[in-house]
Specification:
single chain; mainly alpha; 3 helices; 54% helix
Length: 111
Amino acid sequence: MTTSLLLIVQIVLVIILVILVLLQKSSSIGLGAYSGSNESVFGAKGPASFLAKATFSIGFLFVVNTITLGYMYSQASQASVVDEMVEDNNIVAPAPTTLPTIPTKETNATK
C-alpha cells in the first residue's frame, strides 16, 4: 500500500514538474508566452523567481521520492513467497526392510 501511494505521488510530481518547466520563459517563446498576463500575481520580478523556486522544490521532492521508491522495490524483490511457506508434511517414512544375507566365501569355508 505504501508503494502504491508513493507511485501516485510520483505521477503527480511528474505532471506538476512538466507544467512548471513548460511555463518558464526560455530563449525561444514556447509556452511561457501564455503566462505573460499573470506576471503581477507572482510579484514585482514576475514568475521567473517563483517558478524557479517551485521547479527546484518539486524536482527535489521528485528525486527523493524516486530514491525511496527504488529502495522499497529493491527490498520487496529480495523477499520470496517460498521464504514464507510453512511446510506441512504428514508423510510417515516407511520402515526399513531387512535384506537377505548373501553367503560369502568365508562363510562357506568355515562349514
